[in-house]
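Students often ask why we bother encoding 3D structure as a string. The short answer is that it lets us treat folding as translation between two languages. Here is a chain of 589 residues written in the first language.
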Amino acid sequence: MNERPDISPGTAGGHAVHKAARLRWRIVGVLLVASILPLGLVSAGAWVVFGRLLEEKALKLQRNVVRNHTSAIELYIFSRLRALDLVALSHPFEDLRNEAGLERVFESLRDTYGETFIDLGVIGSDGAHLAYVGPYDLKNRNYADAEWFKHVMSKHVYVSDVFIGFRRVPHCVIAVKRHDHSRTWVLRATINSDRFDALVRTSQLGITGDAFIVNTEGIYQTASRYGRVFERSHLSAPGVHGGVRETRVTIAGRTMVQATSWLNNDRWMLVVLQDLNEIKAPVYRAFLWGAVMVSLAVLVIAATTVLATRHLTRQIDRANEQRDELSKNLLRSAKLASLGELATGLAHEINNPLAIMTVEQTNIADVVGEIKVDQASKDEVMQSVERCQKQIERCGNITAKMLQFGRAGEAKLRATNIGPRLDEIVALLQKQAQVRNVTMKVEVERDLPPVVLDPTELQQVIVNLINNSLYAMNDGGSIRVAARVESGQVLLTVADTGCGIPPELLDRVFQPFFTTKPVSQGTGLGLSVCYGIVQNWGGTMEARSRVGVGTEMIIRLPVAAGPAGRKGFVSAGGFTPPERTGGPGEKSA
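And here it is in the second language, the structure alphabet:
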């Protein structure tokens, strides 16, 4: 309502904000370390323990693949040998010696086993080719000096290494020996190398995997990614071992896992190579998903920690603000109580000299009337007496307000309907407002419940607030007096469109003797008295203001307990702390 000079704010608030922020982030850091460190230790332990388990499981899966693949190749060779042996046992030599009969047998084998067999031939004990069915011209060939023929003559069945022979192409043969009526002969068949290579190079070995067969000298028997048939492999002379053996080798700069298994009566060794990284790919994927889940957990922990800490620190800040506001109100009440006692004592001490001065002025006036002096001198003395009387009256008014501020008198509180009384008070001040070109209106909620107060003090409070508003509007404006129910209390407001109060002065407006009015125009006790009266009613009072917009004084009063309220309740005076604090500041008379 009264414009006051600007006051620069201090740095205490900014320091407190920075301190609170540092405390918040310190709490966040401690909680994050306490939450994430165990999670990190568990993750590291899982990486070590479960990583080894998963790696071992992947390698075990590869060993099973090699073992099963060895069995599949053995079964492939054994089934062809058994088929050839069955043909030799179930067909007379004369039928097989006849190429027409051999042709029928060959077609039957191809119908059963597909294109596994390339050709079929009957060879005598002297190595001469007696009958042949196939794409090569081998009918007149003699195999007496061939290694495979020597082996099959010494054994019942034989599977040869890959060799060139009369065909001039790499091939592998299987052969069985039969003895019939003092006649020994051999039934031989050539295995389809492409089919056999496809069987060996299984599709279960992934992108980098390779499978091939070498003989006891380390010579490739099937094609490989790292060499061709008849070339020497990196296994120059592999030793025979049982089961599946696993080692790690470096080929072409890559670390490979090499699993080996012997077959064909330990004459061939199946070699399976696969890049170690590809074997560990499931492990890496598992750890990748684990890392993703751990990262998500860390993010959730971090977000939860930050939000929870922010919430808790806000609660702490709010509690601190409420504590500071309560301390401020307690200090204010204590100051008001002390100042009230001081004001009462001062008022009594000042009133005694004022009474004596009034009596002496009367005596002076009587003496001047009786003495014989010229009229001009008498008038001058009387004027001085009259001026002194006015100043004594002014001092008397000040001491009266001091006594009222000190609550020297008693107020009788009763349940009161404030609506009609507000209308009467505003009507009383309408003329004064019109002179200042100020419009006033009253807005009272219908069925407003009664409140407990002293009607005479209500008039004093509202008149004082309206007078302050009128003082703040030299160029006209408006004043609104309103009353409504809010949160179980009656909210009484006096709002104006005056010059407003700077924010830094709002905290001082309820302090006794604080005023910005010129000397002799204000004592600074008006709002302090109003504040004490409202507190005595059991209510609260606060001020809200914006410079250039206006000021609103807000009074919150408890609703009367019953139809009769607290009628007849007598206050003993003094000041008590308010049940709830006001707004951002206060206002001066």
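Translate back mentally: Residues 281-370 form the longest helix (90 residues). Keep this in mind for the problem set.
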